[in-house]
Amino acid sequence: MLKKMICLSIVLIMSVVFANAMPIYAKDSLDDLKDAYEQAKAEKDQAKVAYEKAKKTEQGIQARVRGLEASIKSTEAELAVLEKQISDNNEEIDRVAAEVEKLEQEVAEQDSDLNSRLRLMYMSGDMNIIEVLLNSENIIDFLDNLEMIKRIHEYDVQVLEELNAKLKEVEIKKAELDKLKAMLDSHKKAQEDRKIALAEDKKALAAAEEEAHASTMEAKSEMDSLEAESKRIEQELRNRQSSATYGGGAMGWPVNGRVSSGFGQRWGRLHAGIDIPAPTGTPIHASADGEVISVGWNGGYGNMVMIDHGSNIVTLYAHNSGFAVGLGQHVTGGQVIAYAGSTGNSTGPHCHFEVRVNGAPQNPMNWL
Fold first, then answer.
1. Which of 115-119, 221-225, 265-269, 282-286 has the largest mean confidence?
2. For the chain, which domains are there?
3. Dihedral sign (CA 40, 41, 43, 44)
4. How far is CA 58 from CA 8, 61, 330, in A?
5. Per residue in 155-193, pLDDT tens?
C-alpha cells in the first residue's frame, strides 16, 4: 500500500513538473527568437546604412575618376596645340635664319663692293673724282657730275644702313622666337609633368575605386545576409503565431482624421497604405485585437509597429514618435500602441497605416 502511494506521488510530481516546464521552455524560446529578430533587424538597418555610405563613396570616387579622365584628355589636346605651335615656330626660326644668312651675305657683298671702291679711290687718290669733274664740259655738267658722285656715295651709305637695320631687326626677331620656343618648351614640360601627375592620381583613384567597390560589395553581402536572417526569424515568428484566427468585422481607425494620401500608385511606386495627418504625440490605436510582432526602427518607415491579428492578417503603423507597447505583447482593439510623429521618410507628423494579408498590401479603406 505504501509502495503504491509512493509511486502515485512520484507520477503526480513528474506530471506537475513537466506540465510547468513545457510552457516555460516554449515561452523562453519564443522570447529568445523575438530578441534575435529585433537584433537581426537592427543589425540589418546598420548594414544598410553602411552599404549606402559605401555606395555613395564609390560613386563619388567614380565621379572624380571621370573628372580626371576629362582633365587628362584636355591636357593632351593642349599638348597637341603646343607641339603644333612649337613646330610652326621652328619653321619660322628656320625661315628667319635663312633670311638672316642671305642678308648677311648681301651685306658682306655690299661691304666688299664698298671696300673695293674705297681701295680704288685710295689707290688712285682723288684723281678719279677730280678727273670726272675736270672732264665736265661746262659748269652745269660739272655740277651734275658732282651731284652724281654725291648720290652714289649716299646710296652706298644708305644701302649699308638699311641692311644693317634689317639685319638687327631679324636678329631681334630671332631672339624673340628663341625666347618663345624656350617658353613653350617650359610650358610643354609643365604640361607633361601635369599629365604624369594626373596619371598617378588616376591610378591612385582607380585603386581607391576598387577598394570602395569591394567595400560596397562586402557591405551589401552583409546587408543581404542580415536581411535573409531577419526574414527567416520573422517567418518563424509568423509560423509560431499563425495559429490565431482573425475575429472578423471592420477594423477601427488608428487615429481620427482625414486621409491625406490614399492607397495606390504615387510618384511611380505603390503607396502601400493610407496617411492620416495627426499632431506629434497623438495616441495611435490598435485597429483590432492581436499580438505585436515588430516594434522599433524600420528604415523609411521610421518608428514602426506591426500587429498580427491572425489568419495571416497584419496591420502596420509607421512614422511614430514613440511606442506604448513591446514585442510579443497582446493588444486589444482601440488600445494605444504608439504616438504620432514624423520619423523616417516623412514630410510631416501623421500615421501611415497598412493592412497586409500574407504579406501583400491591401487597401485599408476596405477593412476600416
1. 282-286
2. 59-219 (1.10.287.950), 244-368 (2.70.70.10)
3. positive
4. 73, 5, 45
5. 767 777 877 777 787 788 778 778 877 877 887 787 788
Alpha-carbon span 30 to 233, nearest angstrom: 11
Q: How many CB atoms lie within 10 A of CB 46?
A: 13
The amino acid sitting at 173 is K
Q: How many other CB atoms are found less than 10 A from the CB of residue 336?
A: 13
How many CB atoms sit inside 10 A of residue 331's CB? 21
Q: Chain-wide mean pLDDT for the chain?
A: 75
> What stretch of H or E contains 240?
helix 139-241
Please state, in angstroms and rounded to a whole number, the distance separating the CA atoms of residues 368 and 362. Answer: 11
Q: List the grid coordinates of 107.
A: 651685306
> DSSP letters of 117-138?
HHHHHHHHTTHHHHHHHHT-SS
DSSP 8-state assignment for residue 316 = E
What's the predicted TM-score (pTM) here? 0.42
Cell output for 86:
612649337
